[in-house]
Amino acid sequence: SGSAYFYLMGQDMVRYGGYILDTQIRATCYTSGTSPPTAPPAISPTSVGLIVSDGTATRPHCSWSGSCSWSASTQAECAQGLCAASGYATGVFLAASNNPCTTSFVSWSAYFYFYLMDQDVVRYGGYFLDTQITASCSGTTMTAAPTLQPDTVMVVSDGTAMRPHCSWHGKCVWNASTQTECARALCNVSGYGFQGTFVSASNN
User: 190 with 5: CB under 8 angstroms?
Assistant: First the structure.
């Protein structure tokens, strides 16, 4: 009971609300085949640079997984994550396109690189809420390559924006096809792309 995020099978959308019938999904998500197998070579900046995120591996946008707080502290984390991925040692937050806790800069169905401020990691995929970051970066670092996720990971829906449960609106068919649809949507919203395998559901 209560409100949560749900993927609506048959409508291919994620919505927040209180749905009467739903299920928790467990899926195996794959990054192999949806993201480049290796990170691009590290670059070596020499002084100070004004960097604007563009969703590439060396200029990731900022997003989150699990919980979001948009404050001076998390803004600084996003700036540092962007600058580190760009090959700089330090970053100072200057501006953001929007509040990533409530709105998104890019479409969640498109694939980009994102720095996850609550996990301190760069992931490739389609995220539901995110922001474009502008930062002042300086210094050099030997660890410019972003951290990529392993080939597979088990994801369990929890009703958050990045782990939506599965529900329906208008018509419900529960079979192998819709189970796969729910699993792939869960994987995609979680940032792993559409390559997902249904493992189990809490109920019909």
Answer: no
